[in-house]
Amino acid sequence: MKIAVLQMTAGIDPADNAVAVASAVADAAAAGAAMLFTPEMTNLLDQDRERSEARVVAEADDPVLHAARASAARHKLWVHLGSLALRSGDKRVNRGFVIDDAGEIRARYDKIHLFDADMPTGERWRESNSYQRGDKAVAVDTPVGVLGLSICYDLRFPDLYRAVSDAGATVLSVPAAFTVPTGRAHWHVLLRARAIESAAFVVAAAQTGTHADGRRTFGHSLVIDPWGTVLLDMGEEPGLGIAEIDAAAVTATRARMPVLDHRQPIGPVDLID
Questions:
Q1: Catalytic one of 50, 53, 91, 111
Q2: Annotated catalytic residue 111
Q3: Residue 201, strand partner residues
Q4: What is d(CA 165, CA 223) in angstroms, rounded to the nearest whole number?
Q5: What is the pLDDT of residues 26-51, one digit of tens each?
Q6: Looking at residue 238, what is its pLDDT?
């Protein structure tokens, strides 16, 4: 089964990004894909809180979500919007959506782990200043398999992927806007580890390049099979990638290496001096 992965350099205007998403849906459908995956912050990427304030809107008003739903229905294609920056009360949420081929929302996931870090480059990130974290893991049945949802920094927390794979996920989605230094150091190795330990496909649609707000993202959108083999690496250029995934590979890998069957609950740690 074919899937499509959108690697993009999202700007600060959601209207422009909505056009890009609608075009990607059409191209993915034309390529024969069953589902399109987009990156984290598909609707806008803007570090300037004041400038972005008017463009971060409630879910019902977001133009990228509207465009994705309309295009999904028009082209009969499932879409995973990796995430959108949306308003929710006094704070924002970083929310992903799974949209079916009738344009209906099948699942929502709010990013659980928020990125608060000081980088060696001098970049300082405090996602929790603006965003409220989610508190529920989500898996949803799709044409490509049961999809376990996550967003970017979640990648560093394997308990989330254990939870969704225990719930039946055979494909793990990790949309991201990874910084360049952390991407070079950790992107490939962490994504391959998540695939291997869950014996599941990993689909990681990423932001790439230099954005209108001045930040740089790592790119290298990946599709990885359950044995940890990289099936697609999109490098640093924006565009649409196509990969083939086969549900039988999950069954075969889990029979060959039955790690899910061997998982054990871990009790309190005996810390011995």
A1: 111
A2: yes
A3: 171
A4: 17
A5: 999 999 999 999 999 999 999 888 89
A6: 98
